[in-house]
Design a protein that fits this description.
Blueprint lengths: L1 E5 L3 H12 L3 E5 L16 E2 L12 H8 L7 E3 L5 H12 L3 H29 L10 E5 L2 H16 L5 E3 L1 H7 L12 E5 L3 E2 L2 H15 L2 E3 L3 E8 L6 E8 L5 E4 L3 E4 L5 H5 L9 E11 L10 E4 L4 E6 L2 E10 L8 H14 L10 E9 L6 E4 L5 E5 L5 H16 L30
Parallel strand pairs: 1-2, 1-13, 2-9, 4-17, 5-15, 13-20
Antiparallel strand pairs: 3-8, 5-7, 6-7, 10-11, 11-12, 14-17, 14-18, 15-16, 16-17, 19-20
Helix pairs in contact: 1-7, 1-10, 4-10
The structure holds flavin-adenine dinucleotide.
Flavin-adenine dinucleotide (FAD) binds next to helix 1, strand 10, strand 14, strand 18 and helix 10.
Length: 438
């Protein structure tokens, strides 16, 4: 089959890789000059299967209210006269009940674990170098109540098979000695040795290069303007995709099947087709610092719970990422938020990096209220979804690509997950939380 993949972030590129391996003739359309230049460019770089709690959890509404109006808040709603944002907010609240949270964690852990195994297999097969470290993820807490509140999720993770161990402050510093300077502020942590970190940009561009060698066609500098349809009901199909070529010409590209993997930008392209995805852009920030004193910089990937920051060592760089602002599609840098990241990183590792020359970046996480992505079918027989991976697109990326290749090929993926538009019966009996008019 001829398949067109829309978007070349980690999700589109992984989809293209596995579609090609499944024997399809694959073309990827991307508006940027290369792969991974938007949200998959400079993220937190954690493969965090065991720290996959969605932001929608029972403690979230109280915290968000407390943070309203604070410029440096970890999660900031900027209310806009925009129906999607309000509707998304209401759906987010609905996902905060204990039952929904537990069900969402199960879904996320399942696809994330499958994805980590898939990533490891791709790494072994391709030899892509992406500054990866398999030293685990250490989540540390500086607030006693937050630490206690985290225990039920950690317990659920263990029940789901994640070896996430709750540990004391001394053990935290033993695992990552670079945290010694704030030992007296740490109240505890949890550590999962099986989690990983690595540069998502290097991996995605490396995979795009391997896919190109294998015969996948990447059309960069090419913008998708709309999807063309025909038929209705069970006969509804996509006939082609209208693009603007690098030369500025409108063209229509035809294929047998289409995979939507444009992250936050999937929403406006699908809306005219009557597909209402509940995906809202969650603007996050990162800072990248040159490591000047390797012994003082962490090598275990970290999550600083109080500041909602993740830290990953990428060779001679330290990447620190986090915070979320719900404020439409804007990507401008808010220096208050950037400086808060540098202030905190300097406090944690005062002698580790060159803090005078940070590289700041923002990206738009394609957030669903539940943080469970849309992977699966739509009401158009040949249009498939692989989008809405929110805070965990790198963690779930390779597995999502492999799963959508199975679905496009007419096979059931070998993972227990609530695929969109496909029958699913949760073992726990909780109804599907994610709806799409697709
Ligand atoms: C600050 C921050 C930290 C994060 N940290 C982590 C982490 O530690 N671990 C983790 O697992 N995840 C993390 N994430 C989430 C992760 O980065 C995202 O979930 C992931 O990058 C989404 O990938 P994607 O391919 O869906 O989207 P994208 O990477 O945005 O790809 C979509 C592509 O579609 C293209 N496109 C859009 N519109 C058009 C159009 N009209 N025509 C043609 N092309 C188009 C875009 O150019 C883009 O390349 C983080 C995100 C942020 C912002």
């Amino acid at each position: 089959m001829k398949v067109i993949v829309l978007g070349s972030g980690i999700i589109g590129t992984a989809s293209a890789w596995f579609l090609h391996k499944a024997g399809h003739d694959v073309t990827v359309i991307e508006r940027q000059p290369g792969a991974a230049q938007e949200t998959s460019f400079a993220n937190g770089c954690q493969i965090s299967v065991s720290h996959a709690e969605p932001w929608a959890n029972p403690a979230a509404p109280g915290k968000i209210l407390k943070w309203l109006g604070k410029e440096d808040a970890p999660l900031l709603f900027r209310f806009r006269p925009e129906w999607l944002q309000w509707k998304w907010g209401l759906n987010f609240l609905r996902e905060c009940t204990p039952a929904r949270t537990a069900d969402n964690i199960r879904q996320i852990v399942s696809i994330a674990e499958y994805s980590r195994q898939t990533l490891q297999a791709v790494r072994a097969e391709t030899g892509i170098a992406y500054d990866y470290l398999t030293r685990g993820i250490l989540h540390f807490y500086t607030d006693q109540k937050d630490f206690e509140d985290s225990l039920p999720a950690a317990k659920l993770m263990r029940e789901l098979g994640c070896p996430r161990n709750t540990i004391g402050a001394d053990e935290v510093v033993r695992i990552e000695p670079a945290l010694a300077s704030i030992r007296d502020k740490i109240v505890g942590g949890d550590f999962t040795a099986t989690d990983e970190s690595g540069d998502v940009y290097k991996f995605t561009t490396g995979l795009a290069a391997k896919a190109t060698e294998a015969g996948v066609q990447f059309r960069f500098n090419t913008t998708v303007t709309r999807l063309l349809t025909e038929g209705s009901g069970a006969h509804a199909r996509i006939t082609g995709v209208e693009i603007i070529s690098p030369e500025g010409r409108h063209q229509v590209l035809r294929a047998d099947a289409f995979v939507m993997a444009m992250g936050s930008f999937s929403v406006p392209l699908l809306k005219p087709l009557g597909i209402d995805l509940m995906v809202y852009p969650g603007k996050g920030y990162s800072a990248t610092y040159a490591v000047t004193n390797p012994d003082a910089a962490p090598t275990v990937s970290l999550t600083d719970d109080g500041y909602k920051l993740v830290l990953s060592r990428l060779g001679d760089r330290l990447r620190v990422a986090g915070t979320c602002e719900l404020n439409g599609y804007t990507r401008e840098l808010n220096m208050t938020r950037c400086e808060a990241i540098t202030r905190r990183t300097r406090e944690l590792f005062p002698d580790a990096c060159d803090y005078d020359n940070p590289i700041y970046w923002t990206g738009l996480r394609p957030l669903t209220p539940s943080n469970v992505p849309y992977i699966g079918k739509t009401k158009f027989g040949n249009l498939f979804l692989n989008t809405g991976h929110g805070t965990l697109g790198w963690t779930m990326g390779c597995g999502s690509g492999r799963a959508i290749a199975d679905i496009v090929s007419g096979r059931q993926p070998d993972v227990d997950f609530r695929f969109t538009g496909m029958p699913y019966r949760s073992p726990q009996g909780v109804a599907g939380a994610q709806s799409v008019t697709a």
